[in-house]
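Supplementary Methods, section 5.1.

A reviewer requested that the exact input to the structure prediction be made available. We therefore reproduce it here, unchanged from the version used in the analyses.
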Amino acid sequence: MRGLAGVLPLVLVFCSPGVGQVRKTTLPNGLTVLTKEVHSAPVVSVQMWYRVGSRNERPGTTGISHLLEHMAFKGTRHYRSGETTRIVTSKGGHDNGFTWLDFTGYETTLPSAYWQLPLQFEAERMTSLLLDSREFDAERTVVLSELEGDENDPTFYLGQAVRATAFMAHPYQWQTIGWKSDVRSVLRDALAAYYRAHYAPNNAILVMVGDFDTPSVLVAVKRLFGRIPRRPSAPPVTTTEPPQEGQRRVDVKRPAGASYVQIAFHVPQISHRDHIPLDVVQNILGSGRACRLYTALVDKGLATSVEVWHYDNIDPTLMEIFATVAPGSSCEAVEQAIWAEIDRLRSAEVSAHELERAINRARADFVYNLDSTSDQAYRLGVYQTINSYEYVDNYLPAMAKVTAARVKEVAARYLTRDNSTVGFLAPSAQPEMVPGGPRPPGPAHLRRRTAHHHYVRHRRAAPGPNRPSRPRARPAAVAPKRLALAEATQVREVLPNGLVVIAREDHTVPSVALFGMMKGGSIYDPPGKEGLANFTAAMLPQGTQTRTWQQIADALEFAGADLSVTSSLSFTALSGRSLKNDLALLLEIASDELRHPSFPADQVEKVRKEIQNAIRESLEDPAEVVERSLYAAIYPAGHPFHHIGLGDVETVEKITRDDLMAFYKATYRPERLALVLVGDFSAQAAIDLVKKYLADWKPDGQAPPYSVVKVDLPAKPHRQKIAMKGKSQAEIAVAWRGLSRNNPDYDAALLLNYLLGGGYVSRLNDEIRDREGLAYYCYSHFRSSYFEGPWVLHMGVNPKNVEKAISSGLSVIEGMRAKPPSLEEMGLWKDYVTGRLALRMETDAGVAEALADAEFYKRGLDYPWRLPQIIRSITAAQVHEAAGKYLHPDRAEIIVAGP
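The structure derived from this sequence is encoded token-by-token as follows.
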């Protein structure tokens, strides 16, 4: 084979506004290399993309692309199973894999000093996977666990049925994870043949974005990849989906807490001239609260949520509408309302204002996604794989040319009844919990409680241009804008009313992030009206004394800005973002919501139905059921932590408008708010804007005391088993009361948790997932605020493995208590944690949240930068002492929910 010395590669260069320069290099063996230097932080993201996904499969081997992605971490000629992840972890980075309809990808993001490591790993992955039979058998169990976790969600079955009905011939008809029977039966030899056919340089794209020197990188790329031979092209996908000639319908019956409607339309592939106009159609129909379907469905009480997804694919694909039916409504009524809005879009041109709002939203999202090194690499990789990396540069100019006439034209062409597949999911029964004891009281922990700093599983995430895959592990956050506090202009000021405002300049991206934390939350929910704090937060965007909810939504979405208020157990969070020129608008509306909410009676009833429906939906998910149960079990009745989240259907029903207003007046107070702004502005000018809108906000009366009663641990362990109909996977929680943020042992406990179950190479994951192959996910975390939240081990396993998984988990915890960790283990995790903490603030939003957290807990604004040194100073003896004090497997609440 021929080396690269003296070979002149094909090089194409383009400049993208605000993005920087991308260089394309094609090696003689066909490997495409995209490099982009970004020197705002000492970080690099290396991603390898293969043009192989579920599109390349056939009946009998569905899911093989995803299974191969899992096996790509299970050993190569020179690296043992899991060794590459361990090495990346030791450098403070993270790695991950993802699979989708059209591609498989691998990402490593880490400090730029180590940029050569992932290149070595990817060269090995391309040529030398071992695909060991024993590892294969264990990892198949892990993938089946992942699939069974999907099956716990009834909407998985609806999406599966709609896709299988919409596509009659094309392999887009099955989900990326495949049919369960195929995953169970695929042979190791078939996997090896699939690997040899598709993992070749001429079928791959290498993307590097970050802090590096391009000529040096290309020398290394040529050395590592240039000698890998080109392979014969993989079998092409020649199947063309025949035109649809009439509406198709599918009904799914599953135990569920709500009904759902999904409508899919065949639309062109990403390279088609109608693709970008259809993106505008998606925004007009289903982006934000000012969109047409939200107004027609949610505001009218027919649905509690609605989403529209337009997929980016190589071949003709789908646009999908998904709605959750409100109580008292019906699938038929929701479908009829959707068609009414589609017919209106097809028959009349949209207004200039509506068109501009949709395009502005896309433009803002484009800018926000420049804020992350790994996201920039992902964007280049995904579009080069399915179309061309130049799509990134051409997207906004093309969208700006979309006219109202084009919107009407493409809507009329594609959004027709004869081109649609309509799916209904109606509950065959309400989710029935048959506990081994009484039904656990209290509310569920739901997805909208985003203010908690811990892992939350999302019920349904839209694939497509966003991260579409099933991550192999929860990725660490990476890539700071600044590594030292002194490098940025930062101002902190306490206003006369007690409000603390912090402004930090960062001119990397022309946008602004806002994050605020205010003492409050559901610790103030009165008995019998649990869910009041969450209900109150949900009402703030529903109207003020001068604006209706429609005016609030339209103003924000026209500017491409976001603003939300959420409530957790012990604080209320305010988060938002805007382009730099819209900071005044963002602050004006934030101030209006915080200071002048009007709690319109009609919106109170609408939001009440949405919350109650969310509670009913939560009973579909064993993870949510376990969550509600563990809080109720650990904390006695009457304790504020006995309930969490949204409350029960019955308690939310009792909450009145007067309750909401009284709760707001008592708990929304400027002297309890720390507000942080990070972005492209003058720090003092940002402070002055905050003063303009919030300096004269006066507290009303005395603040309620901010405290909870401490509780003792139970004397012995206790178990609950909760049987749920229609589920495939069991969710396990092993939980006990933890410690508060202000406990002097907090930092040692933080490091302890990383060792125990806070990362992919943690003890729990090593034992339960990698060695025993029992679970797709296994992790631990503790939820600390000013008060002692629970410390929890979570696992999702096949029902037959429940007892084995619990026994293994308890054994790992006992091992942490038995003796101090080794110096090698301490070194690995100190490297990882300090690297992660130094790199965690990848975006302005991440910096804003970290600073708000440091201010809220009185740790000092240098705490995010000081914490790596604190972690470095912790000894193995301190970790062992913390394990003895705070890990309590002998007094744990063990809860199992599932089939």
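Residues 12 and 74 are 36 Å apart (CA to CA). These observations are discussed further in the main text.
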